[in-house]
Amino acid sequence: MLELFQQIESSGESVIVTDCGKPVLEVRPYRGMERNALEVLRGTPLRYDNPTTSITEDAWEVTQ
Predict the structure, then answer these.
(1) What pTM was computed for the model?
(2) What domain of life does the UniProt record list for this protein's source (predicted)?
(3) Where in the sequence is the domain holding 23, given as residue range(s)?
(4) Domain contains 5
């Protein structure tokens, strides 16, 4: 395992571990989360006009 961990660390690539052909784990290099608070919030909703209003079924998009 140590050799595998060292290989992942040096290559920077992740490895998927499978059990009977089914993916069960992903082992990847650690990347620190040194981002500022505004960067973390980028892309999130800016505001909710009526957060307590219920949503009707017609408002939902159904995809299959």
Answers:
(1) 0.45
(2) Bacteria
(3) 1-31
(4) yes
